[in-house]
Amino acid sequence: MAGPILVVDDDPFFRQLASDMLSRRGYRVVTVESAAQALDEVGRASYDLVITDVVMPGMDGLTLTEKLRERDPAQEIILVSARPDMKGSAMALKVGVAVVLTKPVDETDLLLATERALERAQLRHERAKLQNENLEFARYQHLHQRCLEFLSQPDLEWLQERVAAELASVCDAQSAALWISDDRGQLVLRAYRGLLDRHFLVDRISTEGPLGPYMREGHPWVAHEQRSSILYVPFVNNGELLGLAQLSDPLAGEFRPEHLHYAKILGDSAAVGVKNGRKMLALQRLGLRDRDTAAYNLSYFTDYASKEIYKARRYGRMFSLLTFSVDNLPLVRMRLGATEAKLAVRGIIKALSRIVRDSDVIAKASDQEFYLLLPETDFFGAMMFVRRALAAVREEPEAQEVEARLPLGLVGGASTFPKDGEDFDELMYRCRRRMDERRASLQRKLMLDTLPFWDEVDLLLGNASSPRLPVEDNAEPSRRGKVSDALFDELQVEIARELMRDPASRGLLYVGSPEIRSELPIVQGLESASPDMASRIYLLGRRMDLESHRALTPVFLEGDDRMSRHEFILWLSENAAYALIQRRGLGATWGFHSSDTAVVDGLITRLQAEYDLQPY
């Protein structure tokens, strides 16, 4: 059915006459008496044909025609004039009107001109519809091709980059960011492009946060944040959330409904692609494992590490490389036999596999050396992993069985990109250096791992008549002897300054004192600290006047005589390792202090076990 016709004339008789003539033929007619009203009406609704008088008060029909053509160059218009010379005149042709009817208008002429004009309008509508259908078909064909690529490409790295690019393209967005779910269910930033500033993108998004309910529904949605539109696209497959894309800076200023529709199609295919990529990666890893230990081979590990280095450089991420060596394995093999040596190695790998994440990779470099790569892990996290790894090995039955007869001598070292280097060789060099430091450590020479905390303290402190420490000279990091009475307070002041200078640095600090008092330098130095400080700080001692603190956690130990006789500071962070233990007597203060990372870490481990403190 033809669209409505607008009749414009200041003469009410002609408006009624034209309306009657056209209505009898089944046309829908709307009449107005001025050009201004006609423009308002056209702004509210679409008209296939406008019939207008030429001479009207105010704006005439020719000016109205020009304004209508500015809105729609294809608008069908019929002019009506009392002047017979208007038909085919230069004025009519100038405004692009070929049909001019002369008043009084003959009904046959009006109906014929109307019929032809509406036929032309209908042809244009059909052509535009066909063009839109062809464009939509081409768009869906493009989407179909992209979806097939997502489903057929097993490389997760390629897929992540391509998904971000294709979503930005089909949604006319200048910027895109992509988070993919890890084995813990958190969304981890994997790709970004366009106008985004990396510093304003969060590394992880919790599915339990404010976006959680929207993501689990599986449908794209638009959020308006700080006068800008952001399109979120969740990737959901069979109820499992696999990823989230964030599109921003739309070229048109706003995202349209069709953008959400296209994003939904690509997002669903991307979810299946991510799931397939994970399965393929698992199959690849399965075929690249060592037969005896189930660790990956060195070839796969170096390839994986090179990809991780590329991602870290590209997206400003970090990762940690760890090395573990079973130093006494040749001795175990010689004294206990090859079977026992294999049993020990298998137990070590089993212990490590129990504490790694799905994204972590363990590789066997040789019979007695293993490598680990921990994505998205800083140096402090790597140190904590080394601690957990050594503890896990001690608890593994297969390793325990061999360890009971002959020490395995397991030692670990860690390095972090880009803190310790920006290529594999540099990172490996730093790992080996730190392994050598642990081998030379007082912790290993005195076999302190087997002692409870206070027994270790007594051994390290000794007294004036105790034998010298085996590493005690000016070049070594550990010393004992008389210390300044002010050292305990001075160190608290310096550590508080360092923590305030870099509150984002992760670490552990334990300050032990006979009494937990508000005038302790560490308490006063961190008075204005943020409660979100990354380091965890604990005060141990008898309760006095400190009940709570925004950055410190008091641990009240009532009636412990050992605490009443000692003071200590144990600090382990990404950039520092230091221990001070002192015993005050009638004379000068006797103490032990060390910057040996293994000693500091060992003391913290034993302290946590002694008082059942929460590990980091």
UniProtKB/TrEMBL annotation:
GO terms for molecular function: kinase activity. Gene3D superfamilies: 3.30.450.40, 3.30.70.270, 3.40.50.2300. InterPro entries: Bact_response_regulator (IPR050595), CheY-like_superfamily (IPR011006), GAF (IPR003018), GAF-like_dom_sf (IPR029016), GGDEF_dom (IPR000160), Nucleotide_cyclase (IPR029787), Rev_trsase/Diguanyl_cyclase (IPR043128), Sig_transdc_resp-reg_receiver (IPR001789). It comes from the Bacteria. One of its GO terms (biological process) is phosphorelay signal transduction system. The modification 4-aspartylphosphate is found at D53. The keyword Heme does not apply. Residues 4-118 form the Response regulatory domain. Keywords: Coiled coil, Kinase, Phosphoprotein, Transferase. Residues 317-451 form the GGDEF domain. Residues 111-138 form a coiled coil. This is Response regulator/GGDEF/GAF domain protein. It comes from Cystobacter fuscus (strain ATCC 25194 / DSM 2262 / NBRC 100088 / M29).
